[in-house]
User: What shape does this take?
Amino acid sequence: MNWLSYQHFPIYAIMVLFLGAFLVVLLGKNRVVRAALALLSVSASLALLVALVPRVMLGGEIIAYWMGGRGMSGGYAMGIALEVDALSLFFALLVAVAVFVACLYSIQYMEHDDNVSQYYTLFLLLAGGVLGLVLSGDLFNMFVMVEILTFAAVALTAFRNTVTGALEAAFKYLVVGSIGSVCILAGTIMLYAQTHTLSLAQLSLLLPGNLNNATKLAFALLFVGFGTKAFLVPFHPLAADAHGAAPAPISVLISGVLTKSGIYGIIRLVYFLFQNMDLGAIRFLLVVVGSLSMFVCVTMALAQHDFKRLLAFHSISQIGYVLTAVGLATTLGVSSGLYHAMNHTIFKGLLFLAAGAVLHETGTTDLNQLGGLAKRMPRTTALFLIGAASISGIPPFNGFASKWLIYQAAYQKAVESGHIGYLLVTIVALVTSTLTLASFIKVSQSVFFGRLPERFEKVKEAPFGMRLAMGVFALLCVATGLLPQAVVKTLTLPAAQAVENVGRYIAAALGTEMPAIRTVTAVEIGVWNPINWLLLLGVSLLSVTLVALLGKYDRVSENEGAVRAGGKYDLFFGGEKSVHSQVGGGDLFWGFKHNWRHYFSFMHDLHSGVVNDYALWAALALALAIVFSQIVL
Amino acid sequence: MLNSIAFAQTALLYLGYVLIFPGFLFCFVVGLLLTGIDRKVVARMQRRVGPPVLQPFYDFFKLCGKETIVPDAASRTVFLLAPLVGLASLVVLQLFIPVFKFSVFGSLGEVADLIVILYLLLIPAVAVMLGGASTGSPYAGVGLSREMVTVLAVELPLVLVLLSVARVVGRETGRALVFSLNTIVSFQTVSGSLITRVSMIPAALAMLMIIPGETGSHPFDAAEAETEICEGLLAEYSGAPLAVFKLSHAVKLLTMTSLFVALFLGGLGTPIAQLVAAVGLSGELAAAVTMLLQVLALVLLCIVLTVLTISFVHAVTARLRIEQLFKYYWTVVTALALISLVLAWYGY
Assistant: This one.
C-alpha cells in the first residue's frame, strides 16, 4: 500500500491529534506556535476524514486497516485494527468538526489562563481518544481510548482548579467515570475469555444466537459502561458538575463529542456485537432509558440557575432523544437519531460557546445575577438565539428537522407495532421539546434580556475569534436545518444503512466475501419543506416590513440623552422600587413548577450532590442491567 | 421564454396568495372583524352597548399614527423586529391551513404538516416573549413567565388532539398515519366531517378549550392581565409595534378557529359544492362561486367559533391564576384529548 493511499487516512487522522498533543508540550512555549500547532493538527484530522466521505459515505466502502500489516491468522483476528464504515465515519466527522471549532474558540478564550500548552495537550488527547474510539475495530482498543478520553476529560474539568467546585466535579467524574471504564474493561475481558477474540467484526459473527451467562453479563457491563460515557440517567448529575466547572470549549467536547462516543458504543453493542435489537426487551431498554433521560433531565434543567449547568442537563436530554430514536430499531429511527446526534453537537456547541463568551466577558454564569446583555453583546445574543431556537425545535433550524423525524419515527413505530408504549414516547418527546423551549426562554430573559445590572454596564462584546467559532456553528445550524434531505442522503442514511448491513462490516474485517449492500429507505409520512417555508416567510416579512417602513414604523422616538431619567423613556412601573425586582431565574416558571412541586422536591432530595450516592446509583444501575440481561437475553 | 412566463405567473400567483388571500389582506380584515364581533358580543352580554364592530380597525390605524417610544433599557432591534416576525410567521402559517378543499399548495406540494404547524404556532409566541423581554420591564418579566407557562399548558392537549386526528384519518385511509393537513381535509370532504365520529368528539371539545388558551383570552389571559400586570409583555409597547402585536393577536383568532374548521369540520364544504352543481353552474364560474361561498362559510364558522369559545366564555368567567390555568389544561383538557386518542388507538 502506498503510504498516501486512502486506507491510511483513518490512522493518520488519529495520529495527527496525538502527535499534536506531544508537540504542543515540547514546542508550546510561544503563544502563537502552540495555537498554530493545535489548529493545524485538528484541521489536518478534519481534512483527512472529509476526504473519506465520498468513498465510505456515498460509495458504501468499508475500510479495514490492520496495523503493522497483521491480520487474520488461524481464523482469529490478530493485531490492532481500525475499521471504518459509514457509522464510524459519521461519528468521526462529528468529532472532528466539534474539535476544530472548539480549538478555534480556545485560542482567544484561554488566552489569560496559565499552562495553556498543557491545556492544548489534554484537549488534543481527548479529541484523539474519542476519534480513536469511534474508528477502532476492536473492543480492547475501544477500552484504551475510553481510558484516554476519560482521564483527559477529568483533567480538563479541573483545569481551572481555582474555580469553586472544579476539583470536586473532577473527583466525582473520576469516581463514576472509572466505574464506567471498569465496566467496559470487565465486559471486554468476559467476551475475550468466551470467544478468544477482541475484533468487533469477529465478535459480531460469533456472539449472536450463541450466548451464555458470561456473555450476557458482558452485555450488561458494556451497556452500563457506555451509558456512563453518555451520561444517561442515572449518571446525569456528573455531567452537570463537570460542565459547570470546565472551560467552555471543553464543555463542547464533553457534551458534543464524549457523550456521542457513549451512544456510538451502545449502537455498536446492540446492533453489531449482540445484534439483539429484534428483541422487544432490548428496544424497551433503550427507549425507556432514552425517554427517562429526555424527560428527567429537561425538568432538572428547568430547576437550574446556572447557565452552564442548565446546558449540561439539556445535553443529556437531547442524548435521550438520540437513544430513543436509535432504540426504535427502524431505519427512520436510526437515521433520525443520528441526525439529531449531529444537530446536538452543533447547537449545543454553539450554546456552550455562547455561555463561555458570557463568562469570559462578565465573569459569571449565574442566571440570577446576569441580565440585559443584549444591549452590550448584541452579536453574541444573536448567535445564542440561533442556538436556542435550534435546541427548542423552532422551525426552520436544525433541531426541528431532526426532532420532527424522531416524532414521526416514534409514532410510526407505535402504530406499526400496536404498542401503546411508543405512543407515550412520542408524547413525551413532543412535550419535552416545549419544556426545552421554556428553559431557553428563561435563559434569554435572565441573561440577554431583562434588566442590565449596574456592574455589567461596561461589559464588552466577545472578541472576534470567539464569535467566529460561534458563527461556524450557527451557520451549520441553519444549513443542516434548511437542507434536511441533503443531510439525510449524504450522512445519516448511509450510516443507518451501515447499521443494517452488519454482514458487510464482518466480511470487510475478516476478509471473507462481501455480501451485497442491502439498501434501506426511510419512509417519511410528514411534509416539511423548509426552503419553501423560508421563501414564503421572506416574502411575507419583506412585505410587512415594507408596509411598516412606508408607515414610518422606524421613525421611533428614542432618548438622545436630553431627557432625564424618570421621563417617558424610562420603564413603566408602579412607583415602588420593590416592583423592579426581577423574577429569579429558577423561579421564572413557578406556575408550572407549583403543579409539579412534589416531583421537583423529590428530584431535589434525590440529587444530593454526594459522590457516594452517585457511585451507589451506578452500582444499582449495573445490578439492574445484569439482572435484566440474564432474564431477557 | 415560455418557462419564464410560466414562472412569472406562478410567482405572481404566490405573491397574491401571500398578500391578498389567504394572506395579509384576508387575515387583516377577518382577524380584526372577529375581534370586533367578540368585543360587541361580550359587551351585549354584559348589558353594555359596546364599541362598533369596526372599532378594532379604527384602533389599529389610530395606534399606527401614535408615537413609538423605545425605552432606554430596550435593545432596539429585537424590540422593533419582534412584532413584524410574529405577524409574518402567523400569516405564512395561515397559508398552510386549507379553506375546505382549497389549498394554496395543492398543485406544488405541501410545505408543512400538522406537527410543523404545531411548532410554527410557537414562533409568534416566542416573538412576543422576546420582544417583551427585550425591554427589561418587570411587568414583561412576569408576563413572559405566564405566557410561557400558558404555552406549556396548551401544548400537551394540543399534541394529543393532533395525534388522534392523525391516527383516525390514517387508519381510515389505510396509511397508518396521516400528518398532512390537506389529506385530512380532503378525506373529510369524502367521508364526512371528523366531528361526526364518536371518537373525535372529546378531541373537538378539547380543541374548543384550547382556542381561548392559545389566543390568551379570558379566563386564560393571565399573561396579559391588564388590570394586574399592565398587559405584561406589551407593557412597554406603543404606537405601530403595538398595533402590529394587536393585529397578530387578531390573526391568531382566525388561525385557531380555521384550524379547528380544517381539523373537525372539513366536510362542510361538500354541500356547498353540491349546491352549486345543483343550481346548474359548471366550469370556471362554478369553481369561482363555490370558492366564494366556501370562504364565506369559513368566515361564518370562524365567527361562530369565536363567539362560542371566546366571547361567551369571556363574559361569564373571571381570570384564572397561572397555576390554576396550567392545572386545568393538564387535567381536564388533557383528559378529554386522551379519551379521543385512546378511542382512536383502539379503532373507534
Notes: Residues 138-172 of chain B form the longest helix (35 residues). Residues 2-345 of chain B form one domain. The two ends of chain B are 55 Å apart (CA to CA). The mean pLDDT of chain B is 83.
